[in-house]
């Protein structure tokens, strides 16, 4: 082996990439193409870093990932061609689902999970369409504190039950929503995950962007200590 070897994983809590157990039981033994294997694993990583409930990737986004393209490059084969071949293999095997909103529209790649199948079906039927900025967003976003660290810093010790709830929240809500809800909880001195969850549920039900109280004012903060939120506060 030429060059320095891998120096090892750093100390401290590291962000994890969830890979379903069924991948190792059923898909891994069947994959016989190295490019497909590399792309499949990278797709788990990339999709886990997208925000929101409708998570997808485009070929353009994947082609901009230098690490992936370097891994896919091979003697006598251009990386772009290798990417196309790997995508075709992953879709044919059923690891990924390819869907578009119609002729001339970009192809989106979803994980072949319950959510991915629902999102792909909704896209094909016209039930939803991707925002232009989501089609161009890079996979590797600037590093930001993970919600586990934010919870420990602002709410309290991380228990196994709370860790499970945080994982569910990470899959269900954009990271910026969780950070904002935690900030509101701290500002109102209500350091309970149930309070944060209630805010997230409210935003999901009513629309985060349509709220009129986005400004950080005393009147805005009062909304989260009155009405439906009062039950979470110790008097």
* Total E-strand runs: 3
* Spatial ordering of strands, largest sheet: 1-3-2
Q: Please state the overall shape, judged from the principal axes of the Cα atoms.
A: globular
Strand content: under 5%
> What does the main sheet amount to?
3 strands, antiparallel
Q: Helix and strand string, N-terminal first? A: HHEHHHEEHHHHHHH
> How many separate domains?
2
Summarize model confidence as the mean pLDDT: 82
State the secondary-structure class: mainly alpha
State the CATH class of the largest domain.
Mainly Alpha
User: Any guess at the CATH architecture of the largest domain?
Assistant: Orthogonal Bundle
Helicity range: 40-55%
For the record, give the distance between the C-alpha atoms at the N and C termini, rounded to a whole number. Answer: 65 Å
CATH fold field value of the largest domain = Arc Repressor Mutant, subunit A
Give me the number of helical elements. Answer: 12
